[in-house]
Amino acid sequence: MKEFKVIWTKNAELDLELIIEYIKINNISVAKKIFFEIKQEANKLRTLPQRKRIVPEFHQIGITKYREIIYKRWRIVYKIDDEKVYVLIAVDSSRNLEDILFQRLIKSDNKTE
C-alpha cells in the first residue's frame, strides 16, 4: 500500500495552536488531549487519503482537489499532491470556511503590496 507523507502548512499549524490555546483557557489537560487526537487523525492520512470527503463548499463550484477530515467539532482541510498530503486548515466546524479563506486571501494579498 502506498504511503503518503503528511505535512502541516504554517497556516494549519497556527490554526491548531489557536484551537489549543482557546481550549487551554478552561482545561489544559483537555487541550493536550485534543492536540494529540487531531494530530493523530491527520497522520492517518498517510494511507488512503482519498477516502475522506471532498470539501462540500468547494465541490459545489467544481473544485475537487481539497478534502477534509471531520474530527469531533473540527474540520481539517487538506490536499493530496503526488505522495504528499498537505494539511491546509484546521478550524472549528461552526466557523464559515468561506470567510476564513477570504480573510486569508486578503491577508496574503496585503503582504505582497
Shape: globular
How can the largest sheet be summarized?
5 strands, mixed
Q: What does the oligomeric state look like here? A: single chain
Unreliable spans are none
Radius of gyration equals 15 Å
Q: Which structural category do the helix and sheet elements fall into?
A: alpha+beta
Order of strands across the main sheet: 1-5-4-3-2
Q: What is the chain-wise order of helices and strands?
A: EHHEHEEEH
Note the gap between the termini.
45 Å
Helix content: 40-55%
Layout of helices and strands:
Blueprint: E1 5-8, H1 10-24, H2 28-43, E2 53-54, H3 56-59, E3 66-71, E4 74-81, E5 84-92, H4 97-112
Index terms:
113 residues, alpha+beta, five-stranded mixed β-sheet, 4 helices, globular
Short structural summary:
The chain is an alpha+beta fold and 113 residues long.
Describe it.
- The protein is α+β, with helices and mostly antiparallel strands and 113 residues long.
- The protein is built from 4 helices and 5 strands.
- The chain has a 5-stranded mixed sheet.
- Strand 3 and strand 4 (74-81) form a beta hairpin.
- Helix 1 (10-24) packs antiparallel against helix 2.
- The chain starts with a strand and ends with a helix.
- The mean pLDDT is 88.
